[in-house]
């Protein structure tokens, strides 16, 4: 097993390098850039895409003195009318005066040392920026994943045992309906019903805590936090809940039909002992294999719309705003860190297999 873990850890290096190379190359072909963002703001447009589309305007000296940003090419349409020395200075400040290969090598050398630099537009280090947004995303991802597993696994087992009964039929119908509802639409429905949209005002609409959170007692802080996080968590939960329930049911149905289950029943073992002593260990392998993907998808993928609707400032909004603004240190820094996290979680999942089913030994595979 030790040799297998070492091999997997060594594979992390080329995999992570490939991810960074592909994304860095793609970025070189994307229109616009940090400098065009700055120029668009200096011209009062506020959007780089309008600058790319064309047009130019006079820029006052006051506007120039207030700007800070970067550029990759002084021939940009948005750069017309700006002094060439000013554009060249921006290029030097943000490293765009270097060729792409040299910039990539410098970036990877810094990332290997976990030096992710500073945001172009926020004057704060990428690490501090991520740590500032992390509590929101952890709250959404962790609670959504835990509740999904706590509810879906027992429900999936019950559906497998009651396969074909009225209980299985109506729960399957409810699950299919829930799976068909997009997360953002369900979030809007929750807001309308329970956050003062049109009916009841039971839960707050904005933020992760109340404005007077610091003055509350410990118990009141916990209740206030749970009060604020309830609707966002349920909004992000619906898709994961449906898929995990059906996955658990089908996995158990497949195991229940195998010969070793019939042999265990023939020996006189109780149904509970058969299910949780024999079937559970084998059936849960496929469920556990989906944990990293489920956690990461809830943690990062579905958080943008939920965070926007509930006015939560988390990693989803951070990534979206960084991509739109071409804030490359934030984009590539978070990409590197979260890709590394995903690869490590995959290794942890394989190790977890061994604790659930001792018959699995990755170290003996050829």
Question: How does this structure look, described?
Answer:
- The protein has 366 residues and is an all-alpha fold.
- It has 2 domains: 21-120, no CATH class; 127-324, MetI-like (MetI-like fold).
- It has helices at 2-28, 34-42, 48-53, 61-66, 84-94, 100-112, 126-161, 166-180, 183-194, 218-256, 259-266, 271-289, 291-301, 303-309, 315-324, 328-356.
- The longest helix has 39 residues, at 218-256.
- The chain is globular and about 85 Å long.
- Residues 47-79 have low confidence and may be disordered.
- Keywords: Cell inner membrane, Cell membrane, Membrane, Transmembrane, Transmembrane helix, Transport.
- It is a multi-pass membrane protein.
- It is found in: Cell inner membrane; Cell membrane.
- Residues 134-353 form the ABC transmembrane type-1 domain.
Can you give keywords for this protein?
single chain; 366 residues; mainly alpha; MetI-like fold; 16 helices; 70% helix; globular
Task: Quickly give the structural class.
Answer: mainly alpha
Helical stretch tally = 16
What's the structural domain tally? 2
Q: What is the averaged pLDDT score?
A: 77
> What is the radius of gyration computed over CA atoms, rounded to a whole number of angstroms?
26 Å
List low-pLDDT spans: 47-79
* Terminal residue distance: 13 Å
Largest sheet: none
What is the N-to-C succession of helices and strands? HHHHHHHHHHHHHHHH
Strand content: under 5%
State the CATH superfamily name of the largest domain.
MetI-like
Q: What is the CATH architecture assignment of the largest domain?
A: Orthogonal Bundle
Helical residue percent band: over 70%
């Amino acid at each position: 097993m030790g040799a297998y873990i070492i091999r997997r850890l060594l594979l992390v290096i080329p995999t992570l390098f490939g991810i960074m190379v592909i994304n860095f190359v793609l970025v070189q072909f994307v229109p616009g850039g940090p400098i065009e963002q700055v120029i668009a703001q200096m011209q009062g447009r506020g959007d780089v895409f309008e600058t790319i589309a064309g047009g130019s305007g006079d820029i006052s000296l006051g506007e120039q003195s207030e700007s800070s940003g970067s550029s990759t090419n002084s021939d940009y349409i948005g750069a017309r009318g700006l002094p060439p020395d000013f554009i060249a200075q921006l290029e030097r400040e943000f490293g765009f005066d270097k060729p792409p290969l040299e910039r990539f090598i410098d970036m990877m050398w810094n990332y290997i040392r976990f030096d992710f630099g500073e945001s172009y537009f926020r004057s704060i280090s990428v690490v501090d920026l991520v740590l500032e947004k992390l509590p929101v995303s952890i709250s959404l991802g962790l609670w959504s994943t835990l509740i999904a597993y706590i509810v879906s696994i027992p429900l999936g087992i019950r559906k497998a045992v009651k396969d074909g009964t009225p209980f299985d039929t109506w729960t399957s119908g409810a699950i299919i309906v829930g799976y068909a509802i997009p997360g953002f639409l369900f979030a809007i429905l929750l807001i309308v019903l329970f956050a003062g949209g049109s009916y009841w005002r039971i839960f707050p609409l904005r933020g992760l805590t109340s404005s007077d959170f610091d003055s509350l007692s410990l118990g009141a802080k916990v209740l206030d936090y749970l009060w604020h996080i309830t609707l966002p968590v349920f909004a992000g939960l619906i898709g994961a809940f449906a898929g995990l329930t059906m996955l658990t049911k089908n996995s158990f149905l497949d195991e229940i039909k195998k010969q070793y289950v019939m042999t265990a029943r023939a020996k006189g073992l109780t149904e509970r002992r058969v299910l949780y002593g024999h079937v559970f260990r084998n059936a849960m392998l496929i469920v556990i294999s989906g944990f990293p993907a489920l956690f990461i998808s809830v943690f990062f993928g579905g958080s943008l719309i939920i965070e926007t609707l509930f006015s939560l400032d988390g990693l989803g909004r951070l990534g979206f705003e960084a991509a739109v603004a071409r804030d490359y240190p934030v984009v590539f820094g978070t990409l590197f860190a979260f890709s590394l996290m995903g690869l490590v979680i995959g290794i942890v999942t394989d190790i977890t297999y061994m604790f659930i089913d001792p018959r699995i030994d990755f170290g003996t595979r050829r």
